[in-house]
């Protein structure tokens, strides 16, 4: 009997898919798949570093696509959930997907399928919230800037939405939790990192990074928001369900509440 292996990869989605290819191609018994920054070696498992190979990753992705478009979304969204041990969970899911002829991804009596579906839905909800709750502020460099701090790594999922909606202006959305962002320069979207001295929230204290006109606009928006609310009809429980408090510090209309 072959000894189970721990495959170590670079943390990228294509790196993970390369591990899946290697496991299938070499018929490796997998003990775990781990990011190189989070390695925890097993007592009885051999480890092997797997380098990302795009052609192999694409072959796995193409194979999954032929099986199910729903499974494709579930796999990518679950990977972006950053849930502990998600790689092994996804590997088991892909194993099941290729071992069945049809509709495996709809078999919610299977614990693996159910868990993947739940994680994918959670990431999907966070994606829609970020698309709704991003608040840009105009910098003195004429770039619309926004900080976000989502529960999951949803930046790759919201890029298309903002590029389509704000195609005529330069913008930068920065994830302060994961320390990278998306910058749109009117032509393409690039992944960038910044050395931020401060996190730009909806503080009533003004920052020198933004224009005075930006703060005038925020005051107008804040006053409009307050004037359209009827206090006697506010349902705080329902409001907090739709706009959780963890997002408030980045919403300009919530300055006084924060």
Give a quick rundown of the structure.
With 258 residues, this protein is of the alpha/beta class. Helices cover 43% and strands 14% of the residues.
Task: Kindly describe this structure.
The chain is of the alpha/beta class. The protein folds into two domains: 5-125, no CATH class; 134-254, no CATH class. Helices cover 43% and strands 14% of the residues. It has eight helices and eight strands. The strands form two sheets. It has a five-stranded mixed β-sheet with strand order 4-5-6-7-8. A three-stranded parallel β-sheet has the order 2-1-3. The chain is elongated. The model has no long low-confidence stretch (mean pLDDT 84).
């Amino acid at each position: 009997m072959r000894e189970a292996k721990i495959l170590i990869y670079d943390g990228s989605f294509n790196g993970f898919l390369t591990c899946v290819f290697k496991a299938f191609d070499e018929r490796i018994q997998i003990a775990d798949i781990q990011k190189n920054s989070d390695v925890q070696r097993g007592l009885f498992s051999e480890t092997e570093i797997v380098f990302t190979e795009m052609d192999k990753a694409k072959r796995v992705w193409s194979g999954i696509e032929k099986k199910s478009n729903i499974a494709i979304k579930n796999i990518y969204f679950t990977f972006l959930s950053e849930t502990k041990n998600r790689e092994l969970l996804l590997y088991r899911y892909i194993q099941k997907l290729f071992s069945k002829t049809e509709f495996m991804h709809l078999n919610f009596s299977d614990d693996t399928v159910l868990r993947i579906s739940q994680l994918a839905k959670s990431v999907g909800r966070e994606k829609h919230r970020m698309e709704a709750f991003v608040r840009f502020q105009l910098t003195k460099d004429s770039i619309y800037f926004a900080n976000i701090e989502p529960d999951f790594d949803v930046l790759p999922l919201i890029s298309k939405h903002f590029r389509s909606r704000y195609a005529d202006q330069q913008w930068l959305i920065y994830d302060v939790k994961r320390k990278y962002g998306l910058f749109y320069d009117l032509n393409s979207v690039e992944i960038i990192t910044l050395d931020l001295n401060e996190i730009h929230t909806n503080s009533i204290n003004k920052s020198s990074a933004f224009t005075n006109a930006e703060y005038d606009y925020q005051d107008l928006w804040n006053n409009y928001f307050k004037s359209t609310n009827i206090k006697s009809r506010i349902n705080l429980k329902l409001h907090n369900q739709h706009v959780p408090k963890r997002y408030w510090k980045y919403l300009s209309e919530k300055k006084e509440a924060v």
